[in-house]
Amino acid sequence: MQLTIQRSKPGAARSMDLLEHSLRTIEEFMGEPFPVRYVGILFKDAVHAPEGSAGVNFGHVITQRARYDVDDGSRAAEFLPSLTAHEIAHYYWAGDEDWIDEGAATFMEFIVENARTGAPMTADGAPCAYFANLGELDRANPRHPSDGGPWSEFGCNYSLGERLFLDLYRTLGREQFREGFRNLYLAVKSRSVYGGIAEVEAAFKKDTPPEVASAVDTLINRWYYGTEPYDLSYLDTGPDDPSLPSINGRIADAFISLDQEWPVNPASRTNQLSLSDIQAGDKEVYFYRRFAISPAATRKEIPLRTVEHYEDGFAFGSRVFSYYFEPGGNGGWWRTPLGPNSSDQWATGRYWVFNYDGERKVVEAEYEIVP
Questions:
Q1: What would the pLDDT profile of 179-203 be if each residue is shown by its tens digit?
Q2: What is the pLDDT of residues 95-108, one digit of tens each?
Q3: 127 upstream amide cis, omega within 30 of 0
Q4: What are the phi and psi torsion angles at 29 (to 5°)?
Q5: CA torsion, ordered 22, 119, 99, 165, to nearest 10 deg
Q6: Does residue 21 carry a pLDDT above 80?
Q7: Above 90 in pLDDT, residue 262?
Q8: Of 61, 264, 304, 363, which cross-links 251 as Cys (Cβ 3.0–4.6 Å)?
Q9: The whole model's pTM is what?
């Protein structure tokens, strides 16, 4: 196997390490030889790709935007491992329904990063706001951005596809999933079979006992036909512990609000927000918390992890924010923006947000986005 990296300007030494790790991990997970003997990545400021695309696998070469070829702790640097894994996975997954190709490649990002860092196997993209299930997405068949289609609708191939494969993985277990995933790849790799929902069903049911076949039926009904309820058993339903011993304080209050003013008016708290109100004012949805701490002579700092969940049972956002309190202060209000990136649409439905101090849940809030 020959691997190369070409650049239009100096980049990060780890980019080759990430390429090698992605290739080895994906090949091992697939249990089938890597489809090509040469992989090259070209980092350039301008790549032949739709606006908003970070990289493209052209087969003979992968192009990625040069701003990701860094190792400086930035958001771009954090994204590079997933970007590389995704494009490498497309050597196995290409030429079928977009939700299979993009969903499988996104799923492989999680496999690769879990092997590299122990990162949890959970969804990456925000919930799809345009289609309730894969069947609706199939019928709509949104155009790829390279053909003039909007990223917002085409992106549902990633978010809905990844969730089907993640649900199959966590329900069937790693080895049973690998067998079905490999069956699907072998069924479509000759291109005599075009991969769609029938091929997914056949691949994951092949030579399985009745209880596995029944589980596959449930998950396909959930994600493709929308006739099975979501599995919320992965939500953290344990009690909150609002104490913050490292700063001799606690979370005294928390709520959701569309209040954009500062300081916040606690009367603006709500557990139901209108999508039309969010869009009309181009507003952020905020998670407000009031910290109560004992005054100290030195500056205090505490990092808290914010995890967002959607009603489909998947976490879709996990970020760590550090909160600072000046000497002599007794706390105060802090806010964290929630939801999808500003370029994405909110999906209607129920949401949960949790704050963790290490592994301990300190506070949570539930809210609903309505039309």
A1: 999 999 999 987 677 889 999 999 9
A2: 999 999 999 999 99
A3: no
A4: -65, -40
A5: 110
A6: yes
A7: no
A8: 363
A9: 0.93
Q: How far apart are CA 154 and CA 132, in angstroms?
A: 14
Homologous superfamily (CATH) for 243-370: Immunoglobulins (2.60.40.10)
- Residue 244's contacts (CB-CB under 8 Å, 6 or more residues apart) are 250, 251, 291, 293, 302, 357, 362
Residue 124: what pLDDT? 83
Q: Judge whether 314 and 296 are in contact, CB under 8 Å.
A: no
Please give the Cα distance from 99 to 94 (Å, whole number): 10
Taking phi over 0 as left and psi of -120 to 50 as alpha, with beta for the rest, 282 belongs to left
> DSSP of 46-106, one letter per residue?
S-SS-TT-SEEE-SS-EEEEGGGS--SSSHHHHHHHHHHHHHHHTTTS-SS-HHHHHHHHH
Specify the fold of 2-225.
Answer: Neutral Protease; domain 2 (1.10.390)
Measured between alpha carbons, how far is 262 from 268 in angstroms, rounded to an integer? 12
Neighbouring residues of 351: CB distance < 8 A, sequence distance ≥ 6: 308, 309, 310, 311, 338, 339, 366, 367, 368, 369
Domain boundaries, the chain: 2-225, 243-370
Which residue carries 């003039």 as its tokens? 148
- Cα–Cα distance for residue pair 204/177, rounded to 1 Å: 7
Handedness of CA 175, 180, 183, 188 (dihedral sign): negative
Mean pLDDT, to the nearest integer, of 112-124? 92
Q: What is the pLDDT of residue 48?
A: 67
Which whole number is the average pLDDT over 278-285?
85
The region, left, alpha or beta by phi > 0 then psi within -120 to 50, assigned to residue 65 is beta
What long-range pairs does 101-106 form, CB within 8 A, spacing at least 24? 101/157, 101/161, 102/157, 102/158, 102/161, 102/162, 103/157, 103/158, 103/160, 103/161, 103/162, 103/163, 103/164, 103/165, 104/161, 104/165, 104/181, 106/158, 106/161, 106/162
Quick one: tokens of 223?
């994600």
Q: Is residue 157 within 8 Å of 125, Cβ to Cβ?
A: no
Question: Six-digit token pair at 209?
Answer: 């006992």
Kindly tell me if the per-residue pLDDT of 24 is higher than 80: yes
* Residues 202-222 as b or e (16 or more Cβ within 10 Å = b): ebbbbebeeebeebbebbbeb
